[in-house]
Amino acid sequence: MPSRKTGLATFTDKQASSARSQEAAEDLRTKAKGEIVHLTLRLSREQWERVHQLGLAEGMSLNRLAIHALSKLFQEKGLPGL
Asked: Global pTM?
């Protein structure tokens, strides 16, 4: 019967430790698990005002503008848009 490491000895077994830490990370993860992933975009006040005005003029939310711009960037690189 193989000996089973217990206590601090389990931390010296890198393979078991790696598997445990990956499982723990998956169990603790609460963000980006669903179908929609939320994203934070940091803009200066001046940048935000410009984007806000563009959104008002185009009748789009900042989120929609960002998706549209990223999609266009993908397409310019020969990739499918979003």
From this structure: 0.55
Let me know if residue 31 belongs to a domain: no
Displacement of CA 61 from its chain's centroid (Å): 21
Residues with Cβ within 8 Å of 72's Cβ and at least 6 positions away in sequence, in order, are 81
Write out pLDDT tens, residues 28-51.
767 667 788 888 889 999 999 999
Domain count, the chain: 1
Place of tokens 């990370």: 25
Cα–chain center distance at 45: 24
What residue numbers bound the domain in which 58 lies? 39-77
Q: How far apart are CA 15 and CA 18, in angstroms?
A: 5
Q: Does the residue 9 lie in any domain?
A: no
Tokens of 35: 């179908």
